[in-house]
């Protein structure tokens, strides 16, 4: 069985990446296209099919047994459809059916991108060896996924663990999702920058208003920039503690661009966790930076495909 491969697709608003991946998580071949995110659904699908065509043209393709897809969400694994917020041409789009057709009828496993990254971190990254883990991506949005009882827990539709839309501020700002005070509305990169600007932070002469620019200002000691990261850390801590209290995770792994701020985020986050994760069974909860980097989506999509049915033990996911 070790000679079998799976195809993996990582679909986001910026790029569509594809790979052939072996049972050890090694990427043997890659393909990539820009996502024509503002075009109609079939144009976006053509970019996916271009990526698949590169994979099917490989001499390795004959060993591919299944396809794993990690997609920006929401996804609906039970229906095989995707409706990524940042790809408006896809609403209830039948991605599984289209990918199955483009790959000659291979079985297809669809999960959300946060769940895919969780699968990768559990298989080969910072959550390896942990049976109960939350993995989060904090970047333009805040996503996540769960490992419970040693197994990936995508939930019926593939969206379980979507911590970005836990409300941590009852009277907080309205979130585009329709709720209020969501983790994402406080802790995502754009919202860290928004809060800093609203509170009086001003960018340098080049006008960079990204979260990275706020992080640079915080490192230089700007109190408003520091406070914006501390507020984000507090929101993340409240969401992580709620999750840990609910399902008894023992590690929270955090990746994504905002996690690149390092101690600016992790130091106040660990401190805030002591305020929120107070019950005896969550006090030992640890927080760690993600290790898998930009290949996490592909490796996690491959893990999901490898764990279909009887292959569950092969991937150790």
Key words describing this protein structure:
317 residues; alpha/beta; Nucleotidyltransferase, domain 5; 2 domains; five-stranded mixed sheet; 10 helices; 36% helix; 20% strand; globular
**Total strand segments:** 12
The fold-level CATH name of the largest domain is Nucleotidyltransferase, domain 5
Tally of contiguous helical segments: 10
CATH class of the largest domain: Alpha Beta
- Largest beta sheet, briefly? 5 strands, mixed
The parts where pLDDT drops under 50 for at least 5 residues are: 310-317
Rg, rounded, reads 20 Å
Q: What is the arithmetic mean of pLDDT? A: 93
Number of individual domains: 2
Spatial order of the strands forming the largest sheet:
3-2-1-4-7
N- and C-termini, Cα separation: 16 Å
Helix fraction by DSSP (H/I, runs of at least 4)? 25-40%
The H-level CATH homologous superfamily of the largest domain, spelled out, is ATPase, nucleotide binding domain
Beta content: 15-25%
- What is the general shape? globular
Structural class: alpha/beta
Order of helices and strands, N to C?
Answer: EEEHEEEHEHEEEHHHHEHEHH
Molecular structure report:
- Belongs to the ROK (NagC/XylR) family.
- By secondary structure, the chain is α/β, with parallel strands linked by helices.
- Strands 3-2-1-4-7 form a 5-stranded mixed sheet, with helices on both faces. Strands 10-9-8-11-12 form a 5-stranded mixed sheet, with helices on both faces.
- Helix 3 crosses helix 9, helix 5 crosses helix 6 and helix 5 crosses helix 7.
- It is globular.
- It starts with a strand and ends with a helix.
